[in-house]
Amino acid sequence: MFEPGYTSEKSCCTDVQQKKGRSRHGWLNLIKVFVSSRDDIDIVLRLKHSPNVFIQASDNKEDIENFVHAEVEHSINNHKLLRGQVPSQLKIQIISALIEGAQGM
Predict the structure, then answer these.
(1) Each residue of 48-72: pLDDT tens digit?
(2) pLDDT tens readout for residues 20-49
(3) Angle 61-77/88-102 helices, nearest 10 degrees?
(4) What is the rounded distance in angstroms from the CA atom of residue 47 to the CA atom of residue 43?
(5) CA–CA dist 105, 85 (Å, integer)
(6) Torsion of CA 20, 26, 29, 35, to 10 degrees
(7) pLDDT of residue 19
(8) Which residues contact 28 (CB under 8 A, 6 or more apart)?
(9) How far is Cα 82 from Cα 22, in angstroms, rounded to an integer?
(10) What is the pLDDT of residue 10?
(11) Of 37, 97, 87, nearest to 64 (Cα)?
(12) What angle do CA 36, 40, 45 make, to 5 degrees?
């Protein structure tokens, strides 16, 4: 089963074939991407001959902080969070809790 927003390689290629009328290998370059949040030795060994990009949760820290700040501000301004009545100290606590809870994910 695929998560919403994701599609399988087969499904994607079938759609392209139907829309363009070309063979899968005639013009389409496939890119296979494997994403894992685990630094598991079995995965590392299985993919040792493939190009790899290693990331850590800390690599996303600034993006997550910016997102959380923007979304909390947006929720307050649109009266979706406590009807817009959020004391500044509580706002700071909410933002801190969300960033901490995200753990880089």
Answers:
(1) 888 888 777 788 899 999 999 999 9
(2) 555 555 566 778 888 777 778 888 888 888
(3) 140
(4) 6
(5) 29
(6) 80
(7) 52
(8) 13, 16, 22
(9) 54
(10) 46
(11) 97
(12) 100
Please give the C-alpha separations between residue 23 and each of 15, 18, 34, 50, 67, in angstroms, as whole numbers. Answer: 11, 9, 25, 26, 41
d(CA 17, CA 73): 45
The residues near 39 (Cβ < 8 Å, ≥ 6 apart) are 54
Whole-prediction pTM value?
0.55
Q: Please spell the DSSP secondary structure of the chain, one letter per residue.
A: -PPTT---HHHHHHHHHHHH---HHHHPPP------S---HHHHHHTTTS------GGGGHHHHHHHHHHHHHHHHHTT-SGGG---HHHHHHHHHHHHHHHTT-
